[in-house]
Write a structure and sequence with these properties.
The chain is of the alpha/beta class and 287 residues long. The protein starts with a helix and ends with a helix. Helix content is 48%, strand content 22%. The strands form three sheets. Strands 3, 4, 5, 6, 9, 10 and 11 form a seven-stranded mixed beta sheet that branches. It folds into three domains: 84 residues, Winged helix-like DNA-binding domain superfamily/Winged helix DNA-binding domain (Arc Repressor Mutant, subunit A); 97 residues, Periplasmic binding protein-like II (D-Maltodextrin-Binding Protein, domain 2); 97 residues, D-Maltodextrin-Binding Protein, domain 2 (3-Layer(aba) Sandwich), CATH 3.40.190.290. Helix 1 crosses helix 2 and helix 1 crosses helix 4. It contains twelve helices and eleven strands. Strand 7, helix 9 and strand 8 form a beta-alpha-beta unit. Belongs to the LysR transcriptional regulatory family. Pfam families: HTH_1, LysR_substrate. It comes from Peribacillus asahii.
Length: 287
């Protein structure tokens, strides 16, 4: 039984349309028909009822579909594990992380962790902070790194780091809080946790401040560098740009910026999860 026949059957069953299946799989429609016919001959069962140009799954087709999906999943998992073995990996750890963490502290941490545990294959999935709790809850990732507490009750959440949020502007030596908030637009909502309360405090002191919502930290930093605005960002996210003179930390006089927390989320405590969790708690304090 050819795995191509299985893939074709699954896609064709999804659409119940051979033309759409051919477009999805980038093969000709006659090839779809040929794969299905070969599979039906192998199983000695008709999988589709054909009426003109329309096809529908037969009772045998419905019965075989979950088996086909399982066969394909096992095949793909086996290939992944074999490829990992060829590369020298014996274990695997999947991490779902927020973009704010992936672009700041995570690269340096991962470099050290992978040097310490070269037999662990690390897989990274960058998601919105609000999606990470669901990813862990559903078992699609082993570890979650997020800036917000999850709403899911079946996972474990621990704060592993807390850092100051600072006001950041373009590299203008004469810039202070009042001048910055009167001169530049305040770039908001680039962090998932603290902006609603912080913006209320800012508008209470500076009621005529102009704002611009940008939902990504990396874009926010580029905008600030180009003089398009100022913003409140966690220190670890701008530490490099400040040291290079691209951005300037602006002293806050009347606004008390919040703190930004980093949380680690887990559900099943494997050896790999324990190793990374312990490593993270020990190493992230330096950031």
């Amino acid at each position: 039984m050819d795995i191509k026949w299985i893939k074709t059957f699954i896609v064709a069953a999804q659409y119940e349309n051979f033309r759409q299946a051919s477009e999805e799989l980038f093969v000709t429609q006659p090839a779809i028909t040929k794969h299905i016919k070969r599979l039906e001959e192998q199983l000695n069962s008709q999988l589709f009822e054909r009426v003109g140009k329309h096809v529908t799954l037969t009772a045998a087709g419905h019965r075989f579909l979950p088996y086909a999906r399982e066969i394909l999943a096992q095949y793909e998992q086996g290939l992944d594990e074999f490829e990992a073995w060829k590369q020298g990996y014996k274990r695997k750890l999947s991490i779902a992380t927020a973009p704010q963490i992936a672009s700041s502290v995570l690269p340096s941490l991962l470099r050290s962790f992978m040097n310490q545990y070269p037999d662990i294959e690390v897989l990274i999935d960058v998601l919105k902070s609000y999606e990470i709790g669901e990813e862990i809850s559903a078992g699609r990732a082993d570890i979650g790194l997020t800036r917000v507490k999850p709403i899911q009750m079946n996972i474990y959440c621990q704060m592993v780091h807390e850092e100051p949020v600072i006001l950041v502007g373009p590299n203008d030596v004469n810039l202070d809080e009042k001048t910055g908030l009167h001169t530049y637009r305040l770039i908001t909502h680039n962090h998932p946790d603290y902006w609603d309360d912080l913006l209320h405090d800012v508008k209470r002191v500076y009621p005529i401040v102009r704002t611009m919502a940008v939902n990504q930290v990396e874009i926010t930093k580029k905008f600030i560098e180009q003089g398009l605005g100022i913003s409140y960002l966690p220190r670890s996210m701008v530490k490099e740009e400040i040291s290079m003179g691209k951005l300037l930390e602006v002293k806050s006089n009347q606004i008390s910026p919040p703190a930004s927390a980093t949380y680690i989320l887990t559900k099943v405590e494997t050896d790999e999860v324990r190793a990374f969790s312990q490593f993270l708690r020990e190493e992230i304090v330096d950031f």
